[in-house]
Structure formats: C-alpha cells, structure tokens
Amino acid sequence: MDSRIYLDHAAAAPLSPAAWMAMEPVLMHEWGNPSSLHKEGVNAANILRAAHESIAKCVGSRADEIVLTSGATESINLAVLGTLKAGSMRGKHVVTVATEHTAVLGAIRAAGADVTIVPVDGRGHVDTDAIISALREDTILVSVMMANNEIGVIHDVHHISKAIDAWRKKRGSVYPLFHSDASQAPNYLSVDVGVLHVDLLTLSSPKVYGPKGAGALCIRRNAPWSSVFGGGKQESGRRPGTENIAGAVGFASALSESVAIRDRESSRLLVLREQLVDGLLAIRGTTLNGDRIRRLPNNLNVAFDGVEGEELVLRLDAAGIAASTGSACKGGSEPSHVLAALGLNTDRINGSVRFTLGRSTTAADIHRTVFVVQEILEKMR
Ligand code: PLP
C-alpha cells in the first residue's frame, strides 16, 4: 500500500496522526455523555467545549456560533433549511451558482425553495454583478462555495459578501443571508468568517485530515436561523442528539493543524501541482479544465482527448495511482455538472480526470504520475 500514490485528497484526506492522537484517549476513556451531571459527563462536556473553542478560533467566530454536525452535507442542509424556516414570512427564493456541490444544489431543491442558479464563465468564475442581479425582495439566502471540489476554482467570497451587504443596507434588511460551503478551503485559504463577512459557513472534517462523520456549521449570532430538528438541547438545540465527542476532538485538532501549516503547505503543493500541469499538458491532446491561477494549489482537472476518464482512472488505479473523475459524491457515471457549467462538450467532460495533491505528495510522485499517464494514454489511444 505504501508504494501507492494517492492523488484524491479532495474526496478524502488521510487522518492526521495528531488528530488520531487527540482522539484516541477520548475514544478509550471519555465515554461520558456531555449532558450527564456526573464527573464522566462533566469531563465529556469540557472536552466538547474545548473542541468548539478550538474550531471557533480557526474561523474567527465565537464558540457558541459553532454547531457540530456529521459533515458538510448535514451542515449545508441545516444552513438552507434553518434559514428558509426563519425567513418563511418573507419568501423562499435562494440564489446559488451552477458549479456548487450537489450537497448545496440538492439541499436547496429538497427544501422546496424557489431557486435561481447563476452561471459561471468558461474558467469557472462567477460574476458578482450576476449574483446581485439575481436578488429579489423575497431572496432569503445566497450560497456560494469558497473553492470548487472538482476544478479547485476559488470564488471571491469576500467581494460577493460585500456586494450583498450593500444590497441589504440599501433596503434596511438582514436578507438575504450569505452562506459559503468552505469544505475544500481551510487547508489553503483563510476561513475567517469576519473577514469573509458570511452569515453561515460550512466545514468538513475529512477534507482537513480529520475523521469522517464530523463537520460544522458556523451560524453568526445575528443571523436569523431556526432549528429544524426536533430532539434534545445538544448544540443549543440546533443539532440535537448525543454528540460525537471523539469526532469533534479529531476535527478540531486537524483543523488547527491545517491552519497552522496552511501557508507552507500551499506553497509546497503549488510547485508540485504546476509540475504536474506542465508534465500533463506536454502530452498531446490534453487540456486544463478551469482557471489555472485562481484555483486551489492542490487541484488539477484535465481533459484527455479520445479517452474515457473512468477507464483512465481504473488503469491508473491498477498502476498504483489513485485519481478521480470528479466529485466522489455523484457516484455512478453521471457526467459532471461542474464541467458542463464551464460549457465543455460531452467528449471533453467524459475524458476528464481530477488529481488532488496532499501532504504526502512528493516530487517523485509527480514524475511517476506523468510517466504512467503518458504510458497508459499511448495504450488507450
Ligand atoms: N461540499 C463540498 C465542496 C465537498 O467537496 C463535499 C464533499 O466532497 C461536500 C460538500 C459534502 O461533504 P460530506 O460528504 O462530508 O458531507
């Protein structure tokens, strides 16, 4: 297994040893229920509080603004449903972007919202003016991701939030709220909610080298939001149910580590990613999908002429390299809605492969990947 090259960090990053070391004693020794009055319960509640505080520090929020969830999908559904519920007297119009993750597009659809989907340009960028033009008096929520999971393209969330704020101020309204799915961002970009100026922010633990089954929604204190789940008082009633304490501890540890090494790791991966881009683009019939500059430093999405991306991914796997055809969440062989939104034709979409680098990636991995891709393409074409 050691000799394998793992280039699918956008789907799931391996658990950080520091996160595991933080989790292990909690799993083994801190079995108390944080809602219990006895010592075991109080210990568990203290550990949980510390995890909230640590996550809050990473995003520049207050600890009580952090709601721990089972991951990004639950966080996004809470953001959408809770905002629509609180604003139901005003309307149910939501504005989002064509390249959002299916968790966002699906949550909005499932909530029965009236949705406007703003298109992106051929490089994956959304125009802030187009978002503002889509706003209506009954718009309750705008949701724009920080960085795309398939093509890594980064949206200027700060710029969009400022424009939304100006629109709100002109009308003396708190609406629309602004949510950003930052699942792919924290390893490489600041997710400070004060700087980003968002009302709601989604985070995912496995994307930051934390355990699966953990994530968070940051709900700013002035944002009108109503609980949608019935149950106990956990997470101040915003996410009832006995808390996943070890998951919270592992997530908090992993996120802090990601923030601490962000700049160093971003610079290191950018160099390797550029080597991979240059190496792959030198192969005949290869095209980059999405903007080359405004994208996450670990992401590369390329189209290979005349081949099926899925077959290439399977052949790479057999050769010891893990890559992907896009979002792991789509499943099956459904064509990528993200690449379609860039205006790519079916052949180019079907011939596309995503490589996402991570902490274990070395220059030798990049050289080998370019060599193996070239070898496989020669056989396939
Ligand atoms: N949003 C983005 C941008 C993602 O990349 C993912 C997972 O790939 C999700 C949401 C869903 O995350 P989860 O599967 O942890 O719920």
List the helices and strands and how they pair.
Elements: E1 5-6, H1 17-29, H2 39-59, E2 66-69, H3 72-86, E3 93-97, H4 102-110, E4 114-118, H5 128-134, E5 139-143, H6 157-171, E6 177-181, H7 193-196, E7 200-204, E8 215-219, H8 245-260, H9 262-281, E9 286-288, E10 299-304, H10 309-318, E11 321-322, H11 337-341, H12 346-350, E12 352-356, H13 363-380
Parallel strand pairs: 1-11, 3-4, 3-5, 5-6, 6-7
Antiparallel strand pairs: 2-8, 7-8, 9-10, 10-12
Helix pairs in contact: 1-8, 2-8, 3-4, 5-6, 9-13
The structure holds pyridoxal-5'-phosphate.
Pyridoxal-5'-phosphate binds at residues 71-73, 101, 103, 145, 149, 181, 183-184, 204, 215, 327-329.
Could you describe the 3D structure shown?
The chain has 381 residues and is of the alpha/beta class. It folds into two domains: 5-13 and 262-380, Aspartate Aminotransferase, domain 1 (Alpha-Beta Complex), CATH 3.90.1150; 17-257, Type I PLP-dependent aspartate aminotransferase-like (Major domain) (Aspartate Aminotransferase, domain 2). It is built from 13 helices and twelve strands. The strands form three sheets. The protein has a seven-stranded mixed β-sheet with strand order 2-8-7-6-5-3-4, with helices on both faces. The two termini are 29 Å apart. Pyridoxal-5'-phosphate is lined by residues 71-73, 101, 103, 145, 149, 181, 183-184, 204, 215, 327-329.
